[in-house]
Amino acid sequence: MNSVFFKLVGAITISVLLIFGCKPDEEPKCKRSNVYLNFKYKFGDSDFALETPYTNSQGESIMFTRSDVYFSNFKAQDKNGGGIETAKIYHLMLPGQTRYSMGAIATNYVDHCMFGIGIDSVTNKTVDPNTYPLDHPLGNKSPNMYWGWNQGYIFAALDGYIDTAGNGNHDFKFTYHIGLNELYRLSKSFKVAKIADASSNIDINITLDYAKIVDGVHMQTEPSTHSFSDFELAKKLADNLSGAFTVE
Amino acid sequence: MLCKRAGFFIVITIFSLFWSCAEKISSKIPFDPWEHIPAPADNAITEDRIKLGKRIFNDKALSLDSTISCASCHLESIAFTDSVSIHTGIKGRKGHRNSPDLFNLAFQPNFFRDGGARTIELQILGPLQDSNEMGLGMVEAVRRLELDSSYQEMARVAYERPIDAFVISRSVGCYIRTLISRDALYDSFLESGDSSVFNVDQKEGLKLFMGKGGCVNCHSGVDLTNYGFENIGLYEEYVDSGRARITLDSKDDGKFRVPSLRNVSRTAPYMHDGSIKTLEKVLEHYNIGGGNNWNKSDKISNLGLTEHEMKQLIAFLETLTGNKLIGYEGI
Fold it and tell me: Is the dihedral of CA B204, B7, B106, B239 positive or negative?
């Protein structure tokens, strides 16, 4: 009898709080919403997909066969430029997937946001992928996203082929593997100005343009980097990659 | 040395103080031979874990074409090294470096000849992933071992979970940690502090090691390494830049870890690339102060050792050879 009474009082209190506790936009602090990043993958003006030829800025026909990119440490800001508490979440971005959960935040409005491309140095230096399940972003992957010898996460693995003869055969391999703490990059701080929808979701639409990643790279003479073996090329690609994201 | 003896004395004193009560409870406390081996919190050493790790270490299923296991390059009979300069991995592909011994790694701060791996548990990803060694990767390794119910059972017993990357990396790490070589003649000397365990040549060799040879400037301590990275002037230009590959700092060009010299009489060929075939040739290298290299350590210089002195140094190096593994015997 007693316990039923308390349950009832509890339920009523919660309902009252839910109904009257929060007026949208006036007191966003007590709202919780789920943030998602929605990626659109482009190559210049075309939609991007693996195994599809595109023409780069050098006029060569290129085709990506692999694009695995870590992004992490999503940060949201409110109207006054204050930081909104967000969870430390890592994602491995694959062109087949577009929507990535960034977790819940204690507000219904995001004014600005940014994220890291790669794995921050603290995690990169301390985490052992063997301690995560295979389906966790930080767990072991196939193909590998962790270097076995010079150990640390591969932040981005972009592989593919170039049609060097211009005869429709993409037979010249390129391998761009970016890693090392020095090459961890932050995206720009994007103006988003998004309010949560009726289901308390905030969807932020981001475009990743692959043409920008390889822009200014002479792919035939610079076909490969593993970061520690060709650091300057990896640095150029890391800078290009962090600048290749835009928000609608 | 003094410290070691003082420590020993304190241990004995404390031990004798507690002797009377220890006698009563000792039958209830199982003797723990792993106590002295440092191990991380998530991978305490147990017999079940060693057994599982040893099985995986010897399992060829860990290579892409199931032709080689860890033990193919790390043979127990020769101090867990192999006898070639550079081992051939799967599909006849050449590896990058000479296989080092695996003794006393529990006391080593980082792994690989350039220090590229932080922990023993992480190190396994090196050979497992490398397309010139095992070429399989952890994801596929888990998928293969998962199918074997006896592995599942051993994983459950050892780690109370199904076989996965955690269990594979931890159990192999646990096994490697227990590969301890501490029963060489040199150890009798360390324990007693009494150089009369050595014959004349060995004793003179020890003196040269500590003095005229300057070896102890790098090969110091119980395992005859200070774990530093040094360039000993093997080449005018190193094809393999060693430590610089990790730090990307040209100051580390041609530097490799000072290797432990335990069992060195069994671990030929020598150096990171197995380029020196015998101990005599190693000493010739040191005796002339190494070759020219802009980054050579200033601890390497012309030694002026006679033929006889070099023989004596080798006689001392031979006292570093152990007879057996301490610890895991019988598992």
Answer: negative
Q: Dihedrals φ, ψ of B188, to 5°?
A: -60, -40
Please give the full DSSP string across B146-175, using - where no structure is assigned: HT-HHHHHHHHHHHSS-S-HHHHHHHHHHH
Structure tokens at B37: 């081996």
Distances (CA, A) of B53 to A105, B57, B100, B313: 43, 6, 19, 37
Which parts of A82-165 fold into alpha helices (H)?
Answer: 121-126
Determine which helix (DSSP H) or strand (DSSP E) holds B4, and give its type and residue range.
Answer: helix B2-17
Whether residues B139 and A142 touch (CB distance < 8 A) is answered with yes
Residue B119 is nearest to which of A128, A143, A228, comparing CB atoms? A128
Of B119, B139, B164, the CB nearest to A141: B139
Query: Which residue does chain A place closest to B123, by CA atoms?
Result: A148
Which pTM does this prediction carry?
0.90
ipTM, 2 dp: 0.86
Please state, in angstroms and rounded to a whole number, the distance separating the CA atoms of residues B172 and B178: 10
> Which of A10-14, A119-123, A221-225 comes out lowest in average pLDDT?
A10-14
For chain A, the structural domain boundaries read: 2-247
- Residue A162: phi, psi to the nearest 5? -115, 140
Distance CA A2, CA A94 (A): 54
The CA distance from B130 to B141, in Å, is 13
> pLDDT per position in chain B (331 positions), as tens?
444 444 433 333 333 333 333 333 333 334 456 778 999 999 999 999 999 999 999 999 999 999 999 999 999 988 899 989 999 888 889 888 999 999 999 999 999 999 999 999 999 999 999 999 999 999 999 999 999 999 999 999 999 999 999 999 999 999 999 999 988 999 999 989 999 999 999 999 999 999 999 999 999 999 999 999 999 999 999 999 999 999 999 999 999 999 999 999 999 999 999 999 999 999 999 999 999 999 999 999 999 999 999 999 999 999 999 987 765 554 4
- Helix B279-287 with B307-318: angle, nearest 10 deg: 130
DSSP B100: P
Residue A52 contacts residue A170 (beta carbons within 8 Å): no
Q: What secondary structure letter does DSSP report for A165?
A: S
Pairwise CA distance, residues B34 & B207, whole Å: 33
Show the tokens assigned to B282: 């190693």
- CB neighbourhood size of A229 (10 A): 13
CA distance A133 to chain B (A): 7
Amino acid in the structure at residue B97? R
- A71 three-state secondary structure: strand
Q: Which residue has the tokens 């006698």?
A: B23
pLDDT tens profile A133-163:
999 999 999 999 999 999 999 999 999 999 9
State the count of interchain CB pairs (< 8 A) between A and B: 75
3-state DSSP assignment of residue A38: strand
